[in-house]
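Inputs:
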Amino acid sequence: MPTKLPPVDVLLVGFGWTAAILGEELAQAGLEVLALERGQFRDTVPDFAMPQIQDELRYAVRHEMFQEPARQTITFRNNHAQTALPMRRLGSFNPGTGVGGAGVHWNGQHWRFLPSDFRQRSHVEERYGADFIPEGMTIQDWGVTYEELEPHFDRFEYLCGTSGVAGNLNGEITAQGNPFEGPRSRDYPNPPLERSLGTLLFDKAAREAGFHPFPAPASNTSRPYRNPLGVQMGKCTYCGYCEWFGCANYSKSTPQTTILPVLLNRSNFSLRTNCNVTRIKLDRSGKRATGAIYVDSSGEEHEQPADLVILSAYATHNVHLLLLSGIGEVYDPKTRSGTLGRNYAYQMVSGVDVFVEENLNPFMGAGALGQAIDDFNGDNFDHGPHGFIGGAYVALWTTGGRPILQHQLPQGTPEWGSAWKQAMAENYLRSASLSVHGSVMSYNDAHLDLDPTYRDAYGDPLMRLTFDFHDNERRMSRFVTARAEEIARAMRPRSYTVNQRQGPYSIVPYQTTHNTGGAVMGDDPSTSVVNRYLQHWDVPNLFVMGACVFPQNAGYNPTGTVGALTYWAAEAIKTRYLKNPGPLVDA
Amino acid sequence: MRAGLTVLAGAAVLTGTAAGLAQEAGFSDIERGRYLARVGDCVACHTAEGGEPFAGNRPIPTPFGTLYSANITPDRETGIGGWSDAEFERAMTQGMAPGGKRLYPAFPYPFFTKVTRDDIRAIKAWLDTLEPVRQEVDPPELPWPLSWRALLAGWNALFFEEGVFTPVPGKSAEWNRGAYLVEGLGHCAACHSPKNLAGAVELDEAFEGGFGEGWFAPDLTGDLREGLGEWSVEDIVEYLKTGSNRFSSAGGPMAEVVERSTQHLTREDLRAMAVYLEDLPAAEEVAEPGDVRDLDELLMAEGEALFVDNCTGCHLMSGEGQEGVFPALAGSSVLQQEEPHSAIQIVLGGAEKPSTEAKPTPLAMPALGWKLDDDEVAALLTYLRNAFGNSASPVEHSTVTDVRSIIEEREGTAALASE
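Outputs:
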C-alpha cells in the first residue's frame, strides 16, 4: 500500500516548461502547489558549467540529458499488420528528463503557429472545399484561435526574452520580419542574434529566388535581459552548444533561466525530484481526480492527494499516464471510436546540404541562429494546384560546429580512409544545411495505445506508437524541398545534396522531438480528450498540457505554441475554474 | 525639493525622543523589532545550517577558536525566554548575559551598544513572538586562558566603549540615520575593518577592509580603486537592495547579508546608509589611474591567455561585463583590494549572487579551482588586477594556496578536485 501524504491544492506531474509556467501562475495566485519530477534537480551552476557541458560525446551521443529507455520507452510499428517492438535506444526523438525537462536541452527555436493552423479543418474547407481533405485524414480545429492566444504567445516570448524582428505588427507588414506570421501586438523583446555568414548567404539567395527571408525567432538572448518576473539572462556567446546541452551562460531560455529563481523561492511551492508518477487516481465516480501515485528513488510508493491535477510531463508521457490510469475511452482505429491516443502526429523533415566556397565559421553558432522563409508553410501559398495540405519552413540554422555529429560531406564521399579525411578537411568549414521543417496532419491510422507485450521498469505496459508518413506529407515535403533546392542553387555552391525523406517512417534516425497528439484539444468531446482550456472532458479537475493536445502538427517547432497554450489554460484556471470548479465548457 | 523634504522629515524625527531614531511611526513595536532584527541580520549567526531560525548553535569560526551562537528564541531553558527586557538590553549594550556571564565579542555588542534602548526593546518584543525552540548550545571551543570569560573584562576595558549613538551636529539627519544604522545594528565595520591581535576593530582604520571567513571584506572608504570612490549613493542603494549594481555583484558572505538583511531595508534607510558611507574619507593616498607596476611580462601573458579561455564568455573580452547581469572586471574594487583573498575565493570556489526580490536570479560563477592550479590562479589574478586600467599588487602563489586550504576546510577537498 502506498503511503498517503498530506494533500495539496495543485499537483503538477513533471517539471519542465509547462509545469514551471503553471507553478508560477498558480503559486502566485496563492495556491499550495507541488511538482513531482521523475529526474534530478539541475541548475546552470554547477550542472551546466563550462567546459564540462560542452561534451558532445557525453550529452549528444550518450544522451545524458534524455529519458533512459532502460527505464521507460515506447514500442513502435508502422502499421497494424506489424508487431510493435520496443525502442531500446532513442532515435527519432529525444524526450528529456530532470528539472526543466526538454526545455533545458532544446535549441530555442521559438515560433508561433499561424492563425490558419488553429482552424485547420475549417480553413481548408473554406478555401479549397471539403473534398480537398483526403480520405483517412482526421484534421480538426483546435477550439482556440490565434487571436485568443496572441496575448499568451506574447507573454511567453517576453518571459523567454526571444530575439527576433516582427514581420506583422498589428497587421502592418514590416520589411525585416516574417510577412506571413499572424499579427503580433508588439515586437520581440530582443533584436535578432548576430548573423552568421551562412544565414547571410541564405538571405541573399532566398531573395534572389523571390522568397521572403527573415531572422528566425530565437530564445537565445541577443543582449542582457531581465524578464517581467525580474529574472536575468546574459547574452549569448554563440558557443554552439545548445541542442542536447544545458546553457552555461544563462543565455538560452529554459525554466531555470526564466522562472525557477522566482518560483523556487515561493513558500507555497514545493518540488520533489526523483519521483516518477505511475497513476492518476480517480474517485469512485470516475469524474474526479483525487491525486497521483508515484514511486520515489528508493522504490517506495506514495499517494499524493490534490484538488487539482495537471499533467505537465512530456507529450507522450502525459498520454501514457492517461492510458495507464484508464481515464477516457481509448481510440479504436477499427471502429474510430474513443479519443485517447487518437491523432498522433509528428514532423516531416528533409534538407539540402550545400557545399560552398566561403568559410562559414560554423563554430560561431547558437541553437536558433537561423534565417528562414515561411513562403511555403501552412496555407501561406495556394495549395490548389498542388493537392496537398500543410507546408514547411526552409531555414539555414548555424547551430554549431561540433566534431562528431555536425558536419556534412558531399554525396559519394567514402565513409572512411584518406578520401574521407580529405573531404572532411575541404568541407568542414565550407558547408551548411537547409532544413525543411514540415507539418504532419493527423490520420485515423496514426495513434497511441498500450503495448500488449512489453513493460517498463515499474512493471507497467509500455505505450505503443503506430505511425507512418502519408502521401499528403510526402508530396508536401517534395514540393517544399524543391523550393529549398532553388535557394541552394542560388547560393552558387560547389555542390549540393538533396536529402529527401524516403521510405516508411523510421524510428531510428533522429528527426525531431516534436511528438504531438494523443490527448487532443477541441470543441467536441467525441473527437477530443480536453476542451479548449485543456481541461479533461470527463474529469474537470484534471488538465493536460503540452503538444499532446495538438490536433495535428503544424510546420513549426512546437515550444512557442505549447507555452502560449499553457498561459491560456493558466488564465482560465485562475480566473474561472478556481471560482467555480467544474467543467469550463459544457460537453 | 524632494531631498529637502526627506531631510526635514528626518530632522523632525531626530529631535524627538530616542525612539525617534528608529523607523517611522506607525509600525507597532513588534513590527519595528522584526525590521530592526533584519537590519542587524540576527538570523545569519543565530541559525545553524538546517536548523530552526534563531535557535542558534551555529558554529562561528574565530581566529581563536570556534564559538556557538546563542538560541535567541523565547525557549525558557535553552533560549532567552526567561530574560527580562533589562537583561536583554544589558546583553546587547554591555555584552553581559544574566548571571553576570560575559559574552565573547564575536557577538557584536561593541556595535549594538550604539542602538537606542527603545529599538532594543522593540527587537526583544519581536523575538518574544517567535515560536520557542528547544536547542542546546554547545560550549565554546577555545584554548585556555581564552575560555576564561573573566578575561573579557580586560578586553572590554581596552577595546569597548559603552554608549548609545549620538548624532553628529552639523551633519544631516539622513547622514546621522545612516551612521546610526551602519555603526550600530548594521555592524558593517565588524567585517569591513582590520582587527588587532585581540580581534577588536582597529578604530583608526575602520572601514578600510578586513578579513572574515577567509574572504577579504573590501574597503568601504572613498578610495577610488579599492573603496567606493566611484560609487554614487544610488549605486550603493542598488547594491544593498538588489545584490548588484553597475560595478559589482555581492558574493561570499556579503551575498547572505544582502539576501537576509539589506534587501529588506527601506530605500530611505539604505539611502541614509549610503550617504554615510559615501562620506567616509579615502584611507590613504588614492592610487592614480595608470600607475605602472613592474610586472613580469610572461606572467601577464599567461594570465591573459587564462582570462581569454575562462572568463570572456560572461565578462567579455573588454572586461566590462554585462550590465545588470555579470559584473565588470574593469574597475572592480573586489579585484583591486590590497588583499586579494576574495578574488581568489571567487576564482577557486565560485560565487553566487544573492537571490533578491528585485533580482531573483542567483547568477553564479562556477568554481575554477578544479582546473586551475595555484600558479595559474596567481597569474590570472595578477593579470586581471592590472588589465583594463586596473592596478594592484601581483598575487602570490602562496596566498592562493592559503585560500585553497580555507575553502577545502570549509567545503571538503572534493569541492575543488577535478571531476
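Remarks. Residues 3-178+189-196+208-346+443-468+513-577 of chain A form a domain with the FAD/NAD(P)-binding domain fold (CATH 3.50.50.60). Residues 37 and 273 of chain A are 5 Å apart (CA to CA).
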